[in-house]
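STRUCTURE REQUEST FORM
Protein name: Putative ABC transport system permease protein
Source organism: Permianibacter aggregans
Requested output: structure tokens
Priority: standard
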Amino acid sequence: MFAYYVRLGFKRLRRNPILTGLMILTIAIGIAASMSTLTVLYMMSGNPIPEKSERLVVPLLDNGQLESYIEGEEPPIQISYIDANNLLQQKYALRQTAIYGIASIIESDRKELPNFFTDGLAVTADFFPMFNVPFLHGSSWTVDEDANGTPVAVLSKSMSERLFKSDDPIGRFFNANDRQYRVVGVIDDWQPLPRYYRLISGKATYGEIESMFIPLKAALAQEYRNNGSVQCNGPRSGDGFEGFLQSECTWIQFWFELGPHQSRAALNDYLHNYITEQKKLGRYQRPISFQTYDVMEWLEEREVIGKDSKLQSILAIGFLLVCLVNAVGLMLAKYSARAGEIGVRRALGANRRDIFTQFLIETGVIGLAGGVLGLGLSFAGLALIAQQSSSMETVATMNVEMLLATIGLAILATLLSGLLPTWRACQVKPAVQLKSQ
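Status: completed
Returned output:
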């Protein structure tokens, strides 16, 4: 009987086409408006590395000066080179990496390719296995190359194609800021949403990854300046780049990857003891203050999803409710016009449950049609959102889960809005209808 009612529902779509078309269009517009904004919010708020997000932890350490101390003040979002170097040397966690942004002029052996400017990151070898970075060619550099500051590099896929076309570039060289780097790896398609590994002020949260990754020590040896935010607490102890390194300026993002048997509580104890030792050495003048965040906590702390996005989603859902209210009115009009048909069916033996089931399934068919049309309109809406910026282009995409959710929401919302018209249809009295005809 269910299949029969479904076939009947599709046939009913052709009857009273204007009213049916208005219902489908109303539902489709509401679904498109809500799902296009919800898709963007979903892509922004997803867990970028669910398999280990709770074991990746970023520490914040308050190394500020005592005279500027404000009780309850949040520690800076980055740490100093002194702390980063100490934490790397002590190797408390399974893996750890320090990250800072670099900018470089690139020279290629290709004569037809002019010099160009690009962004990159200075990291340690642990960066790649920590964040599950996939490789198309080669691999990351070794721990020894890390320690020696060997001039090697891992390139993004787009940078590799730009420098070496489609050839495997492993072992080939290019110049960055007048120094020759040997390519040891090329990253395959990798687009974490958001780019959680480096969330600092003024840098894009979404979009393509950096083009070039080089060892931290190699970058420091070449005195690469930080391409990002710097917060300085107190005077520097020396001049030039070395003085900057030995200052309390915070400019390095740091990450721990905890091992299977390491806990956040134990990491916090370790950091408390670390700061205590540093205080004995004359650093950390303020009362001990530090915080740790795993990946999802870090995204929330950095407010990756803006209040504007949440407000837009609420407004879109509100618009969907308005559309559904209009759909209720249209369905009441359509089903009221079928009172005679209902009366005949009731007179021939159909009970109210049969009528309710039939009309509810027909309502679901309308919802399915509205969902299909709404899906097309949602893709059009996402295309418009993607044109706002390159960052929005990255998140304005619909995956399979959201595609199925669009159809499901359309059917569910239509069924809920069809409950009242369907119930009204069941109340038709056959005697009155037969007498009137």
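Reviewer notes: The chain has two domains: 1-48+307-434, 56-293. The radius of gyration is 31 Å.
Form closed.
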